[in-house]
């Protein structure tokens, strides 16, 4: 656990970069610092590895003040990733990644083996090991930066806008892989970004900073979306926060309808009040949507429109179900159980009836 206890930083020119910030970054979780430019995010991050020392207050790692530890020793247990990766241009990729193991005195063979292993983990082709940074794309360089920070297996990782310099598609890929890696490694991560969407996607907890180094809100993403502390936070989060909240509601909590699901061989269809019915086979696998008015024989004989979107009842969020509903000709999303059989359908009001977890406080 990393604890900020009334941390302030006033630079010699009088700029207040942090103003009595108190918060806790939980062990094994991702804490995101987000906020306006100049809000003090980077300064706050750097107080953890003593690149900046506070002018008041304390930063503690597992209860021990970081100022009681020499910076060099402290930093060996803290990985650091920055924008543009900050790679050494004249070192090969493998040597860049092995930087800290070399510093720790590992033998070359072991350090390089570790570097190659990490290249695979962060999704880099090990064929690139002998290349130099300039021979890699921006996204690949960022992966090298992450691999380098992980090389000595530090329990803590500080990441300052690590994915900001790449295009949105690559960025989304990096975010996905980062989350996958974190699920495996469970590092204590503090992540700075100016992008609220990235914060919501990655953060277990989010700290919102505003100019003057003030911490305005420290909350889960769900709660931040549902209950912004003030107008500043609400404006910072931006539009669509209602829809974005649906990403935190589980599809498993949806009330599913079954009245419009009919077997292909059914004798008669008793859903005259619905314009569409979902036709399923004997195993309840979806075949397509039929217009009720076009069913003259069995449903299976009627013209079928594609199923459109489906969602996984066990694992998807309500946002996924909403997407599926929008893609469905009937405006109804088809929920599938673990065996691929139709568990039921949901649309419109059903999707909005689920409270997001943040909504209850
Ligand atoms: N060495 C320094 N001397 C004086 N002022 C500084 C110094 N470093 C940072 N500042 C100021 O401290 C404030 C906070 O800076 P910081 O870099 O922590 O903000 P940030 O939230 O990370 O901003 P950004 O998103 O733009 O990177 C800013 O006003 C900045 O100009």
From TrEMBL:
This is ABC transporter ATP-binding protein. InterPro entries: AAA+_ATPase, ABC_transporter-like_ATP-bd, ABC_transporter-like_CS, P-loop_NTPase. GO terms for molecular function: ATP binding. It comes from Actinomadura rugatobispora. Gene3D superfamilies: P-loop containing nucleotide triphosphate hydrolases. Pfam families: ABC_tran. Belongs to the ABC transporter superfamily. The keyword Aminoacyl-tRNA synthetase does not apply. Transmembrane segments: none annotated. Residues 2-237 form the ABC transporter domain. Keywords: ATP-binding, Nucleotide-binding, Transport. It comes from the Bacteria.
